[in-house]
Amino acid sequence: LRRIPNLHQHAIDAGPQEAGLANVLKMGLVISRLILHERRQHEYLAAILLIVGVILGYLVKRTLYHHKTTLLPRGTPTALVTSGLFGISRNPMYLSYGMVAFGAALYTGAVSSLIWPVLYVVHLNTKIIPLEERSLATNFPNEYKKYRHKVRRWI
């Protein structure tokens, strides 16, 4: 409590109308604000991006394995996957990679480290994704055209 000098004062300030659960919630808010103030706030966003990115990547890989199609950008697709996360984004795998890259860069706390994920996403968007889209359009012309109009590239 030495590092949290106002915690005791906030507990005393609670009037009779703030009894029970309301007082506990108020104490929780005070503690969480003080904890967030003590930590570097960008670390929390970085952790969320990293965790969600890894989980998203795992789910996408599992879906592609289930449909028995390639994970490689230059590979020949054997199926056009439009279900699950692919119903929200045409590139959920790259979305997960981008989240992990931005999360790692953000965790460092250095603004200059954010240039690498930006360059990575630009590379994906201008080189890798168009390569895959051409392959899908060649192998699944009608289905991919409908899918492309229905689902956005990223989100």
Could you list some keywords that capture this structure?
155 residues; mainly alpha
How would you sum up the major sheet?
A: none
Strand tally? 0
The number of helical elements comes to: 6
- What is the string of helix and strand elements? HHHHHH
SSE arrangement:
Elements: H1 6-13, H2 21-38, H3 41-66, H4 92-108, H5 115-139, H6 141-150
Helix pairs in contact: 3-4, 4-5, 5-6
How would you characterize this protein structure?
- It is built from 6 helices and no strands.
- It has helices at 6-13, 21-38, 41-66, 92-108, 115-139, 141-150.
- Helix 3 runs antiparallel to helix 4, helix 4 runs antiparallel to helix 5 and helix 5 crosses helix 6 (141-150).
- 14% of the residues are buried.
- The model is unreliable at 1-12 and 14-18 (pLDDT under 50).
